[in-house]
Amino acid sequence: MLDALAEEDIEILADTAGTDPAVLFGAAYRMFSGAVLGYLRARGVDDPEAVTQDVFLAFFPKVGELTGGLQGAKSLLFSIAHARMVDYYRRLERRPDFTPYDPLQDGRSTASAEDHALGHDGGAAALLEGLADDHREVLALRVVADLSIDQVAGIMGKSPGAIKQLQRRALQNLKDQTLRRNQAQT
Amino acid sequence: MSDNAGSRNALTVDQLLREAELEADGVLRPALLELQALAAERPQPSAAVAALMVPATRRLEAVPSLPTAHQPETAALPAPRHAAPAAGAAGDELAARRRAKRRITLTTLSVAVSLAAGGAVAVASDQGIRDSVNHAVTSFVSTVGGGQAKAPAKAPAPVTERPGSPSTVPAPTAPAVPAPAASETDSHGTKGPQKHPSPTPSGGVPLPELPVPESITPGAPGGGPLHGEGQPSLPVPETPQVPLPNHVP
């Protein structure tokens, strides 16, 4: 059933001409909202659900000018998400941290059993924590957002060759970090 | 996520590892699959996003129609020009916006016209400006209509010499039409003298010629005959010679 809906959404996004923008928008939301949320979560954005809604609200006015079908919609959405993520980190650098201590926001606390069961312990996102910023970005876009090398190159403003190099180094660093983590756990 | 989606994700990870020449790696693959699982959860759309996902046709259907009791009243009213019958609330809002925009334009125009009228009244109330405007209008009308407007008003009028009258005193302030001008207009056949009537009757009725005293001076009280050519002058009583005392205290 889910696959049938996904196939229908893919068909809607494949031919955008003459389609109601609301229908296109709904299909794009069903197709990519999870990936956008995962990307923002992997990049460590606070309140990724709210930023996901902002990304789609910014996407809606451009639905009418959408070209490139499914991949075009995907590129546009993750371009917006990338820009929101960059904005978030720039804002974070400028803003002094005046917030009082909140135990729920303390990253040193251990996750609850429910979070462990649902997989919300931040473990997957924590995989990227020790990596450099470019490495985190390329892995998030390639793995979580499932974008091609060309699309990632367009979003990050680099050449495809540079993205390939970056991806290889990121994977190597991720492997080393995972090995160290596994050894520490054992 | 279904099995097909899971296998698609595994294929993506395998392709990624193949591109990085790490396809035989047993450590990275589970880590990447775990990372990819972040995209599995689909968030609930917020109210704003959910409203944007409703198709336009369904949005129009959701607009409540007017009750039937109010229909005759609305039918009796003149329909606004911009409001489409099926446009609903969005059309009404658009028409209201356009009306408001038109109202602003009309208000601005009326204020500008009022300011211009006030300025015109203020200008018209000034005596100097009014005189200059009158002068300009008069000169314009005379230039267009007669063509000889300035000559009689400003040129000094020499008194024509008459046979038998020895006096040839010029009268600089005489308003009479000069004779050369009259003859010139006659020669050209224009009607200049008729448009600028002189105080003396010209032509038709001959006036009796009176002797002009020789001791007349310009500007003296007895210079009456100079103002009116051929008109009788009033006798001026002679001033008696009053003896003045030699020593004034």
How would you portray this structure in words?
The complex is a heterodimer of chains A (186) and B (249). With 186 residues, chain A is mainly α. Chain A folds into two domains: 1-95; 123-181, Arc Repressor Mutant, subunit A (Orthogonal Bundle). Chain A is built from nine helices and no strands. Chain A has helices at residues 2-14, 21-42, 48-59, 69-94, 113-118, 123-126, 133-144, 149-156, 160-185. In chain A, α2 runs antiparallel to α3, α3 packs across α4 (69-94) and α8 packs across α9. Chain A is globular. Chain A starts with a helix and ends with a helix. Chain B has 249 residues and is mainly alpha-helical. Mean pLDDT of chain B is 65; it is low at 66-88, 149-203 and 222-226. At the A-B interface, α1, α2, α3, α6 and α7 of A face α1, α2, α3 and α4 of B.
Oligomer: heterodimer
What sort of overall outline of chain A do the alpha carbons produce when their principal axes are compared? globular
Number of domains of chain A: 2
Estimate what percentage of residues of chain B fall within beta strands: under 5%
Helix % of chain A is 55-70%
**Low-confidence segments of chain B:** 66-88, 149-203, 222-226
- Summing up helix and strand content along with how strands pair, one would put the structural category of chain A as mainly alpha
Give the biggest beta sheet of chain A.
none
Distance between the termini of chain B: 138 Å
Poorly predicted runs of 5 or more residues of chain A = none
Largest sheet of chain B: none
Mean pLDDT of chain A: 82
Count the strands of chain A?
0
